[in-house]
Amino acid sequence: MNEEQYMQMKQQAQTGNEAFYRPPLDNIEGATNVDHPIPYLEMGSSFLIGLAVGFFIKKSFKIVLFILGLGLIVMFIMESKGAFTIDDKIVEQGVAQGTDLFKEFVNFIKNRITSFKTGVGALAGFVVGLKLG
Question: Contact at 8 Å (CB) between 12 and 20?
Fold first, then answer.
């Protein structure tokens, strides 16, 4: 079945003459199979690189935040028990330095990913990787 026959069947169905049947896209010339079990394998290599990097960054960022949060909670508990005292300004400065380093790292990764021939595909893969991670 070609696209013209498909459109004729669609028009007939809209007028109520015949039950409309939507054939699979494999039967239309030039169409690709949308129902691929792993759709990302049909993408380009730059998209896959961006996907892997984005996925890794999001997962590693979650792990780092978990460890940092656990460390802060343990530190606050030890302070409440009288083991030592915490200067809030030093903690805030350390967190500010960490966020600055993270911003530099994200800019480095973004510049590196967009340096591929198809930087748009790599950037799209990076965004999808961040979403999936």
Answer: yes
